[in-house]
Amino acid sequence: MENENFKKLTSAADFFNETARKLLATEKGLHAETLIASVARMSGSLMYRSFGFDQKIEPGTSVLSDQANIHGPKLMNLMLVTLKQLGEKISEENINGEYASAKFSQLSFKESHDRLAPFFLKYCEVAPISHYDAAFGAAIATGIIIHDCREVLGVEKGAGIAVYGFVEGTKTAPFPVDGGSAPVPQTEPSQSKKPWYKVWKFSSLWYISTQVHQEIKISMSA
Questions:
Q1: Which residues contact 154 (CB under 8 A, 6 or more apart)?
Q2: Minimal CA–CA distance to 105: which of 38, 25, 41?
Q3: For residue 222, is it within any domain?
Q4: How far apart are CA 93 and CA 206, in angstroms?
Q5: Which domain holds residue 116?
Q6: Rounded CA gap, 86 and 156, in Å?
Q7: How far apart are the C-alpha atoms of 219 and 69, rounded to whole Å?
Q8: Domains: count for the chain
Q9: Is residue 155 within 8 Å of 57, Cβ to Cβ?
Q10: Would you report the helix, strand and coil content of the chain in percent, each value rounded to 5?
Q11: Where does 51-173 have alpha helices with state H?
Q12: Is 208 within a domain?
């Protein structure tokens, strides 16, 4: 059973990796920072969709939830495990925190979501695979992409961008997708366009990234 689940995750990772590269390619080629950020954002967004929150929450709203605090770090951990398996000497301690930011991506969260979500969600429907498991597949894909981009962007820097993308995805209400299915509402999260802070007990880098994410939201809503 575990082998079957692993195959399911790796198959999803392969699809997300190849699909993102095709969809985000421009006449100039692929922009490493944008590719990493976009796939990490979708990993987080797929995880968010697994939480079953009310679909009436305004898209783009920052959402504070215990679910994100529990499951979000798992995406970062799986990305790091993937990188280590690919031979990279990387850990949470040597991730470049200065790159834990959205500013390195040429696309906004919404733009990344609009380009990738229809295909990622359709894959979940057809495979089939749960949003929860698909989130891990996308985290694996993120690690593979960071490794493949290492000649133009250091692994430590790419990992920093990915961490912030995971934060954005797990803590932002996703935008609607035509024909996409959403989970039945279960738990009511706290939501706000205003600041929210919570100590991330699993990861100091994740905590810092969360604070930066919220400070950006504050400036945008001021």
A1: 96
A2: 38
A3: no
A4: 12
A5: 2-217
A6: 14
A7: 23
A8: 1
A9: no
A10: 60, 5, 35
A11: 66-85, 109-126, 131-148, 155-170
A12: yes
The residue type found at 114 is D
The Cα–Cα gap between 150 and 158 comes to: 8
The predicted-structure confidence for 132-150, as pLDDT tens digits, reads as follows 999 999 999 999 999 999 9
Q: Is residue 141 within 8 Å of 25, Cβ to Cβ?
A: no
3-class secondary-structure state, position 29: strand
Question: What distances in angstroms separate CA 8 from CA 12, 87, 153, one per listed residue?
Answer: 6, 23, 29
Q: Report CA-CA distances (Å) from 133 to 8, 146, 158, 203.
A: 8, 20, 23, 22
Helix (H, G, I), strand (E, B) or coil at 149: coil
What digits encode the pLDDT tens for the residues 197-217? 232 333 444 444 555 455 445
Enter the tokens of residue 43: 């990993």
Mean pLDDT, range 152-169, rounded to an integer: 97
Model confidence, pTM: 0.82
CA distance 74 to 186: 21
Q: And the tokens for 148?
A: 């493949």
Instruction: State which amino acid sits at residue 140.
Output: I
User: How many helices and strands in the chain, by DSSP H and E?
Assistant: 7, 2
| Residue 187, pLDDT score | 37
The β-bridge relationship of strands 62-64 and 190-192 is antiparallel
Separation between Cα atoms, residue 157 and residue 77, nearest integer Å: 16
Mean pLDDT value across residues 69-80: 94
Q: 3-class DSSP state for residue 152?
A: coil
Q: Summarize pLDDT for 176-195 with one digit per residue, the tens.
A: 997 544 443 333 444 543 32
